Amino acid sequence: ITNSALKGKNVLTLIKGILKGSPPNCSEGSNRRLAVYQHCIPLCESGDLQTEVAADIIGLLMLETHTLSGPSLAQLANLYVDSIKVGKMGSGKSLELFPTILTALAACEALSYGKGELSGEEYKKQLINSLCSSRWDPQCVIHLTTMFRDVPLSSDELKFLVEKTLRMFTKLDLQEIPPLVYQLLLLSAKGSKKQVLDGIISYFKEQDVRQEEEDMDLEVQSIPQDQLRHVEGTVILHIVFAIRLDHELGREFLKSFKVIQMIFTSYADMCPFSVALLLSVARIQRYEEQVFDLLKGAVIKSYKDEHLQQGSKFLQDLLPRHCSVAHMILDTVKNSVFGWDHVTQGLVQLGFFLMDTFGPKPGPFGKTTEGPVGTTRTPTQQACKLGGQVLLYGFKIHEPIRGEILEQVLNRLVTKTASPVSHYLDLFSDIVVSAPMILLESSSKVIETFDHLSCLPLATVQGLLKAVQPLLKVSISLKDALILVLRKAMFSSQLDGRKSAVAGFLLLLKNFKVLGSLASSQCSQAVSSSQVQVDVHSRYNSAANEAFCLEILSSLRRCLGQQADVRLMLYEGFYDVLRRNSQLASSIMQTLLSHLTRYYEPEQDLLPPVKLEPCITAHGDQVYLQEPLAHLVSCTVQCLLWLQNTQQSANHSADDSDDDEEEGEGYQSHLQTMLESVTRRMVKSELEDFELDKSAEFSMGSSVGVKNNIYAVLVMGVYEVLIEYNFIKAKYNKSHFEELIGLFNCYNKLSEILKEKSGKVRAPSHKTPRSLLSMGFASTLITVLFKDNSQSREEALSVLRSNAEFVRYALSVVVQKIQQLEESGQTDGPDGQSAEKTFRFLCDMTSVLMWRYTNIPSAVEEAGRKDKRCSLSQLCLEGLLRIFTTCQLRYPDKMAQLLSTMGWTLKDEAEQEDATEMNYFYIRQFQRALFTKLSGGEEDFNSREAQLLVSILSVLSRQLNPSSKQFVQMITWTVKICKETSFEDSAFSKGMLSLLFNLHVLYKSPVGLLLELCQDIHSQLGDIDEDVEVEKQNIFAIINMKTASNVFVLSQVEKILDEVEWLIAQKKSQAASDKLNCEDTQSAGQQDPVEKAVTLQLGTLVTALNELVQTSLQPGNCTITLLRVLSRTYSILATLVKYYIQVCTSQHSALPARFEKLVKLSGSHLTPQCYAFITYVQVEPASRLSNRDEKKKKRKNDVNTAASVRTLKRQSLCKICRHLFHDSVQMFIQVNLMQYMKLSTSRDFRINATTLEAALQEQDHSQETTETQNGEGTQEPKKKKRKV
């Protein structure tokens, strides 16, 4: 046989002959057959035979196996087992015969085993057990797994086999993992699908963790990263292919992740590999929706958990930080660079799915509800940002999906006109900056988007053009296409279309520089030379640029005949164009001058100097603004001032005298003469000269009123522009400043009339018009008013400083500008869109406002003030609060820099301690100011100013590190103020308590603080039973009769309940996980720290609520909120009982003593007081009605009572459930918890017999309601309360 097999000739004929001559029914033939098998199996396994010959031999032996006797089969099976144990089955060629032998063996009736006998089936089980229990050679793992596919196995045997195979993963070479996974997936058709999938995922999760640790240690990698990623990619392909063929496997895979989402709250079982696998499975249509829903839920829950944990020191100390699903997804994107083409499509879908689902939504009336740019505070905003990051990284590293990402982004910009698209604009802008040359390859898609510009909202157009601007400099075709579209849009029938055209043309003018233009530090984003090889619009083409820019300017001149909105855009954009492209100065200034001349009265003796009639237009009965004259004058003045400044700077460095300069001096002198004439005549003008009178109508309901309003706003705007111009030109000349005050007096007179008229008419349209002073000038103005000490200027400045109204006006404009910056991120006027310059202005303003507030005592100011308006100190505080809030929102990294401008100098800016010390220095200053306010009498207390100080302290305290000593000092000071201040001011009290809780929650749990406050409230308001005398205590003096009935304390209770509920959910998930993994994590005799913390929190909370339900609260919001909180507390207690049932039944442990105490506390103390409180809520409102407003108040109280009862019924249901749970617990743990709970046969709440009788006599007409109530339960007398 051996010789024939080696030669490969006639071996099958020879073996067939031997087997035919060896009849199985005689012992000699049977032995000869066994000898053939025993010889052929090692021969085939030796590797000396050709593959085809070995396969033919094994195939023949398989056909003859059924003829072998039982003992022969047993010997052969043992031969296989012994060979596998010693590692002789390396090639696995003979293993195909083994399943046939085992099947035949199972059919035998009895076989000798040891000294006894076993049936064939049992013998087979013993063999399989012996085989799986032995050591396997890594070389034969794949062959054995393949072989077992043909062996009939019970579920236990299969589970044992899969577990054995999965353990072998770590002993195999990485390249052998994919084929083994493939065989395991085929084997999973028999069962144990979840076990197989979980084992594969956990193996790669361990590999990823090891890889990260090796990267951190910077040592030589045991496994190259690219090799691991390629293996992971192959395995993912195998699993996805298996799921396509076996939908049961797919269902089991998704089911395991749904269990993670529903039960496990930590997502610790997820990893980049499992995310990649999910995204690959999403390519199968039937699973697509489920996968993205799973990932969406995982992302948002992960962010919410992180958000909750970051805001509570109590939670941070109890549990470790959660693993971030966002990091896993981003790691998957990075890993996908290693040829994971099957994952990339899922990443694109996931990115857009997150952005679509969690992007900003349209608010009421189409207003956007999104937060400021650059801030991602809420979990929803973070999820949206994650989607953008996935798409941006994907775009950078995967060429095949770039086209699809770009197309989908542009499609959304075009189609989502009703929703905010700022997140897509940000993504598009990032794509342009990161890969401009790649985008130029898809320029046709961008050009196609340009065709829709006239139909898009203005904000979208501005964002899109700003994003695409770097491409315009390197692509002539793109620029030409845009110009063509903008020219068409200029004649659009839609106003937004024309505004879009103006925005586009202005952007082009800003960014295509003409040769000779002054360098500007504010140039928009540029493309680096490494990204772009050739700039076709370089300085050598500046002549073409000039012609191009002049052509655009001629197009824009047509806008001067369009609606006010279009003209306004033009005026607001000209300054930036001039600043970035100074060679266009002549054209721009000539355009403005010629247009301004239309509204200028050249006759020097005529008043007023401006023509208002052409500034309005009428259509039917309506009057509209046609020309925003004040903005036109403002634009002209700002451009003129900038030109004069730049020319003065240039004259210092060089002497140029060419024709252009002479021409410039010509229109400049003309404009200066015109402005001087306007100033002189505007001071002389009376209201009647503008057809305005203080007795005139200013209501927005009539055309006359609208016209007067438009005139008034235009004139006020012109006055403001002239104030700024004349201040700058005055150069601290006293007579010029007196003229400036004359302008202000005229402005103020008109402003007072408008305020007076708007006060009489309640209409939302009467708002203070936005000031036309630039932010830079407003900053300069308050600086010279308050801080300029130079002797040479003192006389001139005294003219301004002596006018109290002017000083107030300057401060109010500063506050208005800061408010505008806070809300929109930019301000009107020059440099209002430059983040760097606006921050510099903020710094200057902060310094001045702080100096003014700290150096001039408000007491001095209050003594000299006669009117009821807010003081200048209060305006300064309001400005400071808005500055700090704006800085935290818009410039979160620059808070230390802002504070340092107020006089503190950082020794080393890199040292965080120095920044913290500086922050606390200013906190102490505001603390001292507040303490001074509180030290005076209550009659002199300025509540609004105190509230502003508390708000400032709240904002600044967010910059402190909760672990720093300054933070602890801040808490100590806040507690002291709350304990010592007894002013009856609800708003101030709420602000202080809010600050106290916000600080306390970052230091430790505020539940103890809450208990003390509830005791104070009970002490101040008294008991619901008038016969009970409450022990007088007043830990916090801030709680008094007026401030005690504040709902704020209850809102803090709800926050604590949120944390407790979250912790119980964490423990339930952990218990479920331990049950699945058959682990017992809790050691005997020790209570889990989380369980202990939850019990203690609830115990203190129940005690606090026990105080509140005995308190004589005012009917209304307070009582309804309290009932809602009680209902939720009982619901959470019921959830806790469920959890203990789960733990006690699985671990057969006793209930913790603390939990028993909690049950006793809630059952014996809180529940009886709830009954009394319910009666009080229903009866008390009716008894407190006054005769005058009886009907009105009765209706309101009836509604309150109905709401209370509805809340109560929910609470009672929870309570009933809780009783049932206690019964269930007793069945398992034999502890009589019900001894603390009094079960009544009455309904959920008790009825006082005398009260019911009185109510029946009063309300005879409500007989139906009474019968219903009588039918619901029997009466139970009210028990006498113990004295508190």
Automatic annotation (TrEMBL):
Extract one GO BP annotation from the record: DNA repair
**Origin: domain of life:** Eukaryota
Q: Residue ranges of the FANCI helical domain?
A: 248-335, 520-755
| FANCI solenoid domain ranges (all copies) | 31-243, 343-506, 772-996, 1010-1253
Q: Where is this region: Disordered?
A: 1256-1284
Composition bias (Low complexity) maps to 1265-1274
> What name has this protein been given in UniProt?
FA complementation group I
Record-level Gene Ontology MF annotations = DNA polymerase binding
Taxonomic source organism: Oryzias latipes
